[in-house]
Amino acid sequence: xxxxxxxxxxxxxxxxxxxxxxxxxxxxxxxxxxxxxxxxxxxxxxxxxxxxxxxxxxxxxxxxxxxxxxxxxxxxxxxxxxxxxxxxxxxxxxxxxxxxxxxxxxxxxxxxxxxxxxxxxxxxxxxxxxxxxxxxxxxxxxxxxxxxxxxxxxxxxxxxxxxxxxxxxxxxxxxxxxxxxxxxxxxxxxxxxxxxxxxxxxxxxxxxxxxxxxxxxxxxxxxxxxxxxxxxxxxxxxxxxxxxxxxxxxxxxxxxxxxxxxxxxxxxxxxxxxxxxxxxxxxxxxxxxxxxxxxxxxxxxxxxxxxxxxxxxxxxxxxxxxxxxxxxxxxxxxxxxxxxxxxxxxxxxxxxxxxxxxxxxxxxxxxxxxxxxxxxxxxxxxxxxxxxxxxxxxxxxxxxxxxxxxxxxxxxxxxxxxxxxxxxxxxxxxxxxxxxxxxxxxxxxxxxxxxxxxxxxxxxxxxxxxxxxx
Length: 470
Description:
Shape: globular
Oligomer: single chain
Strand content: 15-25%
CATH topology of one domain: Rossmann fold
Number of strands: 15
Mean pLDDT: 91
């Protein structure tokens, strides 16, 4: 029996056991498993951002790290976490991890490249494991759709997408201001991320993927690719470079959009756009992201809320228009640097400008709070602003407490899924260079057969088909 056949059979068998356990929890929790003070957590993706997620979850004091999984377990960027947890079982294949340790795992953190979130998440949910997955949820619109359906099918499974600002000051302020009528009648939002990205400086006039290079001896390149169609190894596909490529990552929009637009999307009930128009694509090609992008997302009227146009700007020299009275946006220490590791000097830091019929707001990214502009208007409104509650838990503690039944996650798939799908549609406009006309009811692209096919993408590699069934 092949490894893939074994994994498929084991996956189906364990999924049946997990379903039984949801109905009768004590079947798999007879010795206190699931009712302890800490959540038994397996971690897939343990280097770079994955390592930061593991550390943040562990620092809450609410998690037992019971398994570590990474396709390059001997890579330099994994050493710190391995040293911290020297006695924790290690795996290169997440399927083998679940096969061998499934009955010891309550939850899983997923800090792998964008394209590989999907199969790990689907297997975990099918086995009844709670899931913390880094943003964006997945690379294709259809994969996000299936992840939402899987979560809905397993309502006792806790899900959380890792846009950590969704548990900090910006989240609670936006909600309080919206509930109090301070934020109302929003008609336009400008979102901007103008720091340098990994692919800036690459030659956009390319006609093929980079040439094959020798595979590092420590890396399992076959598992790294997971369900995607085969690529030859190149150093510019791994260690964060995957974010540059349409085949693997979601560019600046998928990387930062969830940290900039998350609260507006949720509390203004934006849902999915009916049109995405690529107004500017400097350096467009068929392989990696443009050097500069301006996208227009149009959302319809929702109840008594007017239509909204969201404009996204990325690229070092692609700054958005700034309203009068904007002032100076200082570097917010709560905004982490891009995944290149260093925040390059920018004329405007990542953030947003929100225009309503009566007020204009400016804000940063992640936990950064909004301010009313100009300053004279802010002073006038100061006495009318509601008290904003403080967060009872950060994003990582919120997830783990939800696993224990003490809280509900603030970015479950039902909330994070449509937000991620907005970015998937934006990426399709970047990739195809076409205006996307989207049917929000049927969830299809009516303007382009090619773009509509990309909602699903190519079929998975043999041995990975089972993750596309809910």
